[in-house]
Amino acid sequence: MYERERLELVDKLSEKGINDIFVLKAIGEVERHLFVPKAMKHHAYKDIALPIGYGQTISQPYTVAFMTEALMLKPKFKVLEIGTGSGYQAAILFKMGIQVYSIERQFEIYSATRKLFDHLGIHVNTKCGDGTIGWDEFAPYNGIIVTAGSPNIPSSLKKQLLIGGKLVIPVGDKNSQILKIITKLDEDEFDIMDVPQFSFVPLIGREGWNQK
Ligand code: SAM
Predict the structure, then answer these.
(1) CA-to-CA distance for 24 and 21, rounded, in angstroms?
(2) Which residues form the pocket of ligand 1, taking CB atoms under 6 Å from any ligand atom?
(3) Whose CB among 53, 81, 87, 197 lies 3.0–4.6 Å from 113's, allowing a Cys bridge?
(4) CA distance 35 to 120
(5) pLDDT by residue (tens digit) across 49-58?
(6) pTM higher than the cut 0.85
(7) Pairing of strands 177-186, 189-198
(8) What is the pLDDT of residues 114-154, one digit of tens each?
(9) Cα–Cα distances in Å, from 81 out to 16, 45, 193?
């Protein structure tokens, strides 16, 4: 179902500058319409974010592709995702042969997405909790991807990154953020590249925004 729309989406992302073939292949294979509410299915292959309920969104495909490409992944790498949401980003990583660990703070979203992963046979390790403090038990990670906008770069996430690994995180105020692509050069040495103008829902937690 929707195969033609998926291939058109892949073409669009490639025209917009995504060139990691493993990312494009995964976008071409993962059925995004299964990760959005029924009423949104006919919009699933548009390059736009969509509401998934509880005030949250499934990220725009271009954003998912851009952030995934920025992690510079190889199969079997271990990646921590903060903000499981619909599960689409995690499914893309899983399709790329990545060992995925994903944390979601909202219980309703966490349990619906956990059920979806089981139903679709997507093997992702999930946890309900505050992702701003990472998931120490399985650290260090080759990559960490934060899919909500943060006021800063949580120190726990920097700690849990492998030397040579990459952390991709939107940082800014609640309306717009700069995407930071951070490479861990040494225990306390990081290279930071800024990519402007992304917009995410807020990252709420101990090392993120305070809950209202
Ligand atoms: N990756 C998701 C996808 O593929 O659909 C998009 C996620 S949505 C833009 C951001 C998610 O981050 C929301 O589901 C929100 O509840 C979650 N979130 C916000 N703060 C969080 C935190 N501290 N820890 C874990 N999840 C958090």
Answers:
(1) 5
(2) 56-59, 82-83, 85-86, 88-89, 103-106, 109, 130-132, 147-148, 200-201, 203-205, 208
(3) 87
(4) 11
(5) 999 998 899 9
(6) yes
(7) antiparallel
(8) 999 999 999 999 999 999 999 999 999 999 999 999 999 99
(9) 24, 22, 19
